Amino acid sequence: MRHLIFTCSLALGIFGHSVTLWAELDERPLSINIVPAFPDLQWPAWLTGEEEGQARKILPIVVTGAGDGTNRLFVASQYGTIFFFRNSPETKQVTTFLDIRDRVAFDDKENEEGFLGLAFHPQFAKNGQLFVFYTPKDEPRRSVISRFRVSAEDANRADPNSEEILLTVPEPYWNHNGGTVAFGPDGYLYIALGDGGAGKDPHKNGQNLQTLLGTILRIDIDHHENDRLYAIPADNPFVGKDSARGEIWAYGLRNVWRHSFDRKTGDCWAADVGQDTWEEINLIRRGGNYGWNLREGRHAFGPEGSKPREDLIEPIWEYGREYGKSITGGHVYRGKKVPELVGAYLYADYVSGHLWALWCNTQTGEVTANRTLRTQGAPVMTFGEDDQGEVYFTSPQGDILKFSSQ
């Protein structure tokens, strides 16, 4: 159906005023096929549980190309292993690229920890560098962002002994770790960190610029600075401020899962998982405060949230519990195989399996369409892109699915 409804609020500038927009919103279901991308793909017996005689979830947490011209697709499991295979529907076999299960903590009862993020350096073909986000086995509880390098002896494997830990962030609880690492069009690494966990942000990390929790960071991994193995870009919004960490690019976020960059426009999209009632989608701007834990979606949260604040950026989109309980952010589709989806931000709900395609003018903040692709199905763990811009999504059971025109 088409409705005239409130579509989005967008803060202009760094801390601008919110602009409320009204537009004709297209909510008609969109007929798109969802099909297995690699129907004959075989996971290792240790991963499936076949060796122990008991079925085990695969947990494919990241899907990405490496941008190196090899037409390989890389899939990381939450247990701590990265695999790759030829990006072809006929693919059957996977090859282990990096195995760091010896240092990654994962417990199915505390399932927001483990191996959570992977990004290849924009010059990976030349320098063999990749970056990962994981929670380690040893105490204290923390998140780790590390650099690994391709083995000097085998170009098809990363060297597990090459790890350089760039950053560690203490985590008070096992949940809300965030975990996305992604390179922006500026060549810097953007890192999403949750608010530290528990519920309702008890330590008020979301509004505290002296902690890295509840933020998206932006760091320069090609340069060193002082005793760090990275540098802080000079144009980061809080550089030089004693009351803030210079690494922070945006804050006031609860648990971003995931953020990504539109490969055409460079816009950064982030899906933030809600607390009680609202799931939200944000366009990430330099220095932006996205409101948590004063706001949940476009709504006041807690007694402090009802006070007027002109510096908070409202989400461009939200949905309530009738559609799901945990948003899984995706990508703006820029592939060629499904022209009906070009320019749409593809996202899902982990609990309900609902899938949508959302179109938004990111300059004005006007959402023009939010069209359903699927109303229910298996949980959607993550989305990913190959080097051609085709989009995939996964289920915990190990399915890698894609979209196709009818």
Overall description:
By secondary structure, the chain is mostly beta strands. The protein has one domain: Neuraminidase. The protein is built from two helices and 28 strands. The protein has a four-stranded antiparallel beta sheet with strand order 3-28-27-26, with no helix packed on it. The protein has a four-stranded antiparallel beta sheet with strand order 4-5-6-7, with no helix packed on it. It is globular.
The overall strand count is 28
**Run of helices and strands:** EEEHEEEEEHEEEEEEEEEEEEEEEEEEEE
Number of folding domains? 1
- Kindly report how far apart the N and C termini lie: 21 Å
In the CATH scheme, what's the topology name?
A: Neuraminidase
Q: If helices are DSSP runs of H or I spanning 4 or more residues, what is the number of helices?
A: 2
Keywords:
406 residues, mainly beta, Neuraminidase, 4-stranded antiparallel beta sheet, 2% helix, 38% strand, disordered N terminus
Put the structure in a nutshell.
2% of the residues lie in helices and 38% in strands. The protein is an all-beta fold.
List the helices and strands and how they pair.
Layout: E1 2-11, E2 18-26, E3 32-36, H1 45-48, E4 60-64, E5 72-77, E6 81-86, E7 95-99, E8 115-120, H2 124-127, E9 129-134, E10 142-150, E11 158-170, E12 181-183, E13 189-193, E14 215-219, E15 248-251, E16 256-261, E17 268-272, E18 279-283, E19 295-296, E20 299-300, E21 317-319, E22 327-328, E23 345-349, E24 355-361, E25 366-374, E26 383-385, E27 391-394, E28 400-405
Antiparallel strand pairs: 1-2, 3-28, 4-5, 5-6, 6-7, 8-9, 9-10, 10-11, 12-13, 13-14, 14-15, 16-17, 17-18, 18-21, 19-20, 22-23, 23-24, 24-25, 26-27, 27-28
